[in-house]
Amino acid sequence: MGTLLEVGTGFHPELTGRENTFLSGAILGMSKTEIHRKFDEIVAFAEVEKFIDTPLKHYSSGMQMRLAFAVAAHVEPEILLIDEVLSVGDLEFQKKCLGKMGEVAKGGRTIIFVSHQMNQIRRLCDRVLWIDAGQLRCQGLTSEISTQYEATSSGRLSLQEGRDNSGVKVYHENWEILESPGGSPNIFDSFGPIAVGFTVNVMQPLRNVQHGLLLYSADRQLLWGSEINGLQLLAGRQVFVHRLPTLPLRPGAYTWRVNLYDDDGLIDDWECLPELVVATKPVTHSKTSGLVS
Fold first, then answer.
1. Would you state the pLDDT for residue 105?
2. Helices 61-73 + 32-46 axis angle, to 10
3. Residue 215 — φ and ψ, nearest 5°?
4. Buried b (16+ CB within 10 A) or exposed e, 200-236
5. C-beta separation of 288 from 183 below 8 A
6. DSSP assignment letter at 280
7. Which residue, among 284, 256, 276, has the nearest Cα to 147 in the 3D structure?
8. pLDDT at residue 281 tops 60
9. In the chain, ranges of CATH 2.70.50.60 domains
10. Who contacts 166 (Cβ-Cβ below 8 Å, separation ≥6)?
């Protein structure tokens, strides 16, 4: 069994990249012969060929992390335990790290990957164990358990927590995926059409209302928006229904934001809870390894 818990095990700033490769490899359990055999592959993977005989103290932090991961990734235990270390380097190197771990898994060895990065888990893992407060909460296929985890994490807050609706003309009460194929009102798990309903409670009749809808990613990037003008709203509960032919998003959590305006200005603005959880399987093209977004 091997572990990849912290990259850079055994590195010394006064030694060269070459010397640190042998030192770190030995600490991780590789023989001198094995390190010699894999040395060129390790250096090429880390992309530090020009600096391999330069003392490590002159490396940038990114170069040190790449070399450290490259050494650790070429250890060949039957079982490899990885704890949140696949975020080293830039985006291209992270993709290379994931690709390398995928090769290890396909080679017949077992990888236990501990992480909160759901997209990495979906790409690398076939099965998931959900650990909560040190206890095994559930286990199963990656698509099923990751969806349960995201749905639970997104639904911990009440729908109207922190919203003061006293004295308002109208306010949004809740939202749901209508006729949800996944059986849950906030989880979308297909690539087909989707209908989303937003329920509003109208306290008094309103004329010339503008209804806006925005969709944000987990890192607050605006992905899509729409608006409808000139609405007439009667008192009581009403539902705004938005129908989309498809929702081509990466798996993960997203946030709807809805608002209402009349001639006097903004009358309601709500970031919907629970969040929208997209649980479709990652889609790849035969010539690329990227996800469709």
1. 76
2. 130
3. -125, 125
4. bbbeeebeebbbbbbbbeeeeeeeeeeeeeeeebeee
5. no
6. P
7. 276
8. yes
9. 170-278
10. none
Task: Tell me if residue 284 falls in helix, strand or coil.
Answer: coil
* The two three-digit tokens of residue 1, written as one number: 């069994």
CA distance 145 to 129: 8
For the residues 18-46, what does the mean pLDDT come to? 92
Question: What dotted CATH number matches 170-278?
Answer: 2.70.50.60
Kindly report the number of other CB atoms within 10 A of residue 196's CB atom: 24
CB 263: neighbour CB atoms within 10 A? 9
211-261 pLDDT, tens per residue?
999 999 877 889 999 999 999 999 999 999 999 998 888 888 888 999 999
Q: Tell me, what's the pLDDT at 212?
A: 94
Give the integer Cα–Cα distance in Å for 265 and 87.
45
- CB-count burial class (<10 Å; 0-12, 13-18, 19+) for 167: exposed
DSSP-assigned beta bridge partners for residue 82: 4, 113
List CB contacts of 224: < 8 A, sequence separation 6 or more: 214, 215
Residue type, 123: R
Q: 230 or 78, which is more confident?
A: 230
Select the more confidently predicted residue: 159 or 214: 214
Q: By the 8 A CB rule, do 60 and 71 touch?
A: no
The model's confidence at residue 5, banded by pLDDT at 50, 70 and 90, is low
Among residues 42, 34, 40, the alpha carbon closest in space to that of 71 is found at: 42
What's the CA gap between 82 and 99, in Å, rounded? 14
| Residue with token string 């994490």 | 153
What is the Rg, in whole angstroms, of the alpha carbon atoms belonging to the chain? 25
Domain 2-114 has CATH 3.40.50.850: no
